[in-house]
Amino acid sequence: MAVTMLQIRIHGRGGQGVVTAAEMLSIAAFDQGAHAQAFPSFGSERTGAPVVSFCRIDDRPIRSREPISAPDALIIQDAHLLHQVDVFQGLKPEGYVLINSGRSVAELGVAEMAARLPVGRMITLPASEIALRHLGRPLPNAVLLGGFAALTGIITLAAVVEAIHTKFKGRVAEANAAAATEAYDTLKVPA
Question: Who wins on pLDDT, 64 or 22?
């Protein structure tokens, strides 16, 4: 896997699996032969508080440990944060944005930001709804990783599923893998 440093920032709320999402993303990249790191940043360590986690992927060892200020990609696990926190801060002009919502980019009020990116680089996915169907709980993290694989091609669905099975076991792993696969299939455009 030939990769130059890719930096992904994940925004959500405490209890949504934001930190776990970054960990699984780094496991997926590592499984594909890349170097990866994941780490969180907490403002207030309580359920419902805004949480940010970071993931770096590179084909060389990663020495940087500071928070990501210029991400190549954003995963927004809670669309309510779009107008509460500057989630787009530092996003690169060719960046990707995946938002957990059943509403369109225009309905979310971020069409102007989407217009600054290449076509198709900012999309929504009803990840909480997909998770609810598979897990019985609206935990969007693994679902969004399946969607992220489809949107970016940075990681494969197989690597995401393997990372899910590394992090979880039994029925929880199977349900998360099925949810991630549904998200991938929802967003993947046939070639």
Answer: 22
